[in-house]
Amino acid sequence: MALLELKNVTRRFGSFTAVDNASLGIEAGEFFTLLGPSGCGKTTILRMIAGFDLPDAGQILLDGKDLADTPPEQRPVRTVFQSYALFPHMTVAQNISFPLTMARLPQNEICQRTQETLKHMRLADKADKYPRELSGGQQQRVALGRALVSRPRVLLLDEPLAALDAKLREEMQIELINLQREVGITFVFVTHAQDEALALSHHIAVMRDGRVEQVDEPSKLYGFPKSRFVADFIGHINMLDAQVLEAAHGHTRLAITGLGEITAPPVAGISAGAKGAFAIRPEQVRIGIHGEVAELKNHFPGEVRNLLYSGDVTVYKVQLAGGSMLEALLPNSAPGRAEFFEVGDAVRVGWRHDAGVFLHE
To answer: Could you tell me the pTM of the whole model?
Structure first.
């Protein structure tokens, strides 16, 4: 049985359904992320787990017990907000010890737990500082320390890295991974940033319009999305309208609109005539002159229409003969390539027969 379960949870605000019949299972000790665009219902789910809001239907269970009648302060759950919500008039040590003081724990236990947490969060030398004297990353650690000092079963994180700059955000991602591994507490993390979710999580629930679209490990979400929305929302992807010509045991033959016939990986439960989309990541598409891609099962002529140089890689937008546009990613460290393709160059793009995925409508 999962540590935390949502069973057919619905939450409405007037005529608007923020969460629509959502079910999730979150295991003890995992880093679980709710991912989706603004307004998809992920923060509403977090608020219901915390007890700040209640579902109109369904159940939220912790260790098999329905939390409906448990007020927020009595739930073994703590929340770290995007704003950190630190008390400006309190020192770092006072901020961290606040939940223990409110719980009226013995003073010696408060001191011991606070010192342990300060050391764990690498803040021992900042104990007497005030929040205004700290960097953004240090304030983040204070907020985490305050949430963890009471040893909750579940830690909820509502976009806690959103206010940080890119470099600090990357550093804090590594810190969060290490912290979660060390303390062993279940983390439920909310974000709209796909790269953040992929980097941090054991499992991700992708949400759309209050519904859970897909729950999976990051690599499976990225490599094997189950819908157009998930494929398009997670990273960059090429999406081409397709129809099944043959559904064999070891492969699928597809007719791509404006392109022609390709060979794709097998798909369970489909038959000839099925319509959908063929989705393939730019890094799976090879670009070159004829000889460099001719050995691939699927290869087509095209013309470079645009390119984006990003230092380590260059992304090429290639218009194929039938009018379709395809993105191909080429590492700039590729051996033996002294120059880039330019806009207007005639090229060929290709990909392996076992690359990409057919998404049924």
So the answer is: 0.90
